[in-house]
Every structure is written in structure tokens, then in C-alpha cells.
Design brief:
Length: 131
């Protein structure tokens, strides 16, 4: 019995493997340029990164609003930090207008600028809280 079961499993494995190879061959023929899958993956990565950056922007906006409302961030400092945030949002829109999604260097630039601004919002909120 074990031999028949083992033979059946081996046969099924060979069928599955050959079907997988056929599918890969067909997909290679369907996209002869070879760039379509890579471009689609890049676009998807750019879209996902864009969503994460958008969430970070919204988080900073919320923290700024909370800090201004509670008095931890002064009106002048809040205005300065909001201007910095708006310039990052403007840069993100400029990158997105290219029509190809966000590239890795663009994502890195935006994340670096958001890291710096986030740190300033955190420090400013703590600093004014001690007064």
C-alpha cells in the first residue's frame, strides 16, 4: 500500500511541477518585454509606500493640532512646523505627478524629512510642557 501511495504522491508532484513550469513559460511569453512584472511590482511598492507616508503625514498633523490645542506648542511654533509639513506634502505631490509612483530615493527623502519634522514636533511639545 505504501508503494502505491508514494507513487501517487510522486506522480501528483510531477504533474504540479510541470503545470507550474508551463504557467511560467506562458507568463514569460505573455510579457516578452520582461519589464511589465517588475514595473507592476515597483508601482505597487510605490503605492504602498505612498500610503505609509500619507499615514505619517496625518499622524504629524494630528500631533500638531493636539499640541496647539493643549498649549504644548505655541502658535508661532505651530505655524512654523505646519509650514514645514506643508512643504513635505508639496514635495510628495510633485513626486507623484511623475506618473510612475514614488521611487525608492523619493521615498527615502520623504521619510527622512518626516523623521526630522516628527522629532521637532516631539521636542517642541516636551519643551513647552516644561515651562
Amino acid at each position: 500500500m505504501k508503494t502505491a501511495s508514494t507513487s501517487a504522491k510522486a506522480l501528483i508532484a510531477m504533474i504540479v511541477m510541470s503545470a507550474g513550469l508551463s504557467t511560467m513559460a506562458l507568463s514569460a511569453q505573455a510579457a516578452p518585454q520582461g519589464h511589465a512584472p517588475a514595473a507592476a511590482a515597483h508601482a505597487q511598492y510605490g503605492v504602498e509606500a505612498g500610503r505609509k507616508i500619507e499615514a505619517r503625514i496625518q499622524d504629524i498633523k494630528d500631533r500638531l493640532a493636539d499640541g496647539k490645542h493643549s498649549g504644548r506648542i505655541s502658535r508661532a511654533e505651530g505655524s512654523r512646523l505646519t509650514t514645514s509639513l506643508n512643504s513635505i506634502v508639496s514635495l510628495k505631490r510633485q513626486y507623484e505627478r511623475s506618473g510612475r509612483g514614488l521611487s525608492q530615493p523619493e521615498i527615502n527623502t520623504l521619510n527622512t524629512k518626516l523623521d526630522i519634522l516628527s522629532g521637532k514636533v516631539r521636542v517642541q511639545g516636551h519643551y513647552n510642557n516644561r515651562r
